[in-house]
Structure formats: C-alpha cells, structure tokens
C-alpha cells in the first residue's frame, strides 16, 4: 500500500456519491470511501452486522479507484442473500464470505490494507483490536460507533470522529523487522482534527501529520 493520494480520495468520494445517488448531504460512507482510496488500499475487508449496506457500496467505489478488491464478511446465508439483493448489479464487485469476522480477519485476511467494521456487530471491540494487531500496515475503521454504548475500546488506539453515526479511525503503523515502528530515527504519526464552521454548521475533517524523533 503506497502513501496518501489526494486524487484517489477525491475520485472515490465522487464515485461513491454517484453510486449512492446522493446529490448532496453525504454521510460517513463517502468519507470512508475517500479515506480508503486515499490510502491506496488494495485488499479491503468489511465486517457487516447484518446485510451489506451503503458502506460496502462506498468501498466498491474505493476499490475501483485503487484497482483493489472488496471482501464482505456476513454471518449467515440470509444476510448473504439480502446483501446481494441490496447491492444489486454491484454485488459482482464484492467477494462475499460467510463466517466469524474475528477469526477470518485474524487468519484469511491478516494482510488486509484496510479493515472496516460495523460497530453494531457482535464482539465489535475484539474484531477492531484484532484488525489493528494483524498484518504490518493499514487502516482500521469502525462505523456506527455511537451505537456501541461505549466507544472507548481498551487496547484499541483510535480517534472518534463525529461523522455519520460515529466513525472510529485507527492507522496501523508499519513495523520494522525488529518490531519497532518506522524505519529510521524518527517516526511519523498523525491525528485527526474536526473543525465546525460556526456559520454553516458544516464539519471539516483534517489529518495532521506529526513527525516525532526517536531516541
């Protein structure tokens, strides 16, 4: 997975808006699409609480932009059938898998560039922490975070953004062979800043990179 691409992010955002047939008032799905595509994710995994929804559709838009693939994990045959009906002609762009999301993320998809989790799913916190701990790089996102009851996951280092019904964002650092993050003396970290326009009420989200020096 290469570095940040503003072009991919913009194109995926617009494609997601078009696929969802939204003329205005975008929700968290479009932001997720832009974030995933901007990070050039190729293997994208989404764990759904029920059937695939607008977030899965937005991830298809991101995959079209990066040349990647989308794997959608659902819990059973009924959810699979409903997902295919909901996605309609876009269902062919998604690889549906039935199974336990936590186990699949830890085994079959432990090299995913991006893992997206519906926070309404059972064992949501465990899946998020598992996704953050596997592989060597990537982005972990949790949507519908406000429906978790408590969004603070112990051991899961994430930022909660007031987008849609709450969006958790965690960036998994690249690990060197010796287990330390980064490949040099310093390492680049980032944090998310949310600004609200006091006149229009619009929310603007920025990612600020911080370069910290190691010892």
Descriptive account of the structure:
- The protein has 215 residues and is α/β, with parallel strands linked by helices.
- It has six helices and nine strands; from the N terminus they run ααβαβαβαβαβββββ.
- The protein has two domains: 6-172, 3-Layer(aba) Sandwich (Rossmann fold); 180-215, no CATH class.
- Helices cover 30% and strands 27% of the residues.
- A seven-stranded mixed β-sheet has the order 3-2-1-4-5-7-6, with helices on both faces. It has a two-stranded antiparallel ribbon with strand order 8-9.
- The chain is globular, with a radius of gyration of 17 Å.
- Residues 174-188 have low confidence and may be disordered.
- It holds the Pfam family DUF1442.
CATH class descriptor name of the largest domain: Alpha Beta
Q: Could you give the order of strands across the largest sheet?
A: 3-2-1-4-5-7-6
Task: Extract low-pLDDT stretches.
Answer: 174-188
* CATH homologous superfamily annotation of the largest domain: Vaccinia Virus protein VP39
Helix content: 25-40%
Oligomer type: single chain
Overall spatial form? globular
- Would you identify the CATH architecture of the largest domain? 3-Layer(aba) Sandwich
Here the CATH topology of the largest domain equals Rossmann fold
- Give the terminus-to-terminus CA distance: 27 Å
Largest sheet: 7 strands, mixed
Order of helices and strands: HHEHEHEHEHEEEEE
Number of domains: 2
Give the rounded overall mean pLDDT.
77
Q: Please tally the helical runs, counting DSSP H or I stretches of 4 or more residues.
A: 6
Pfam families: DUF1442
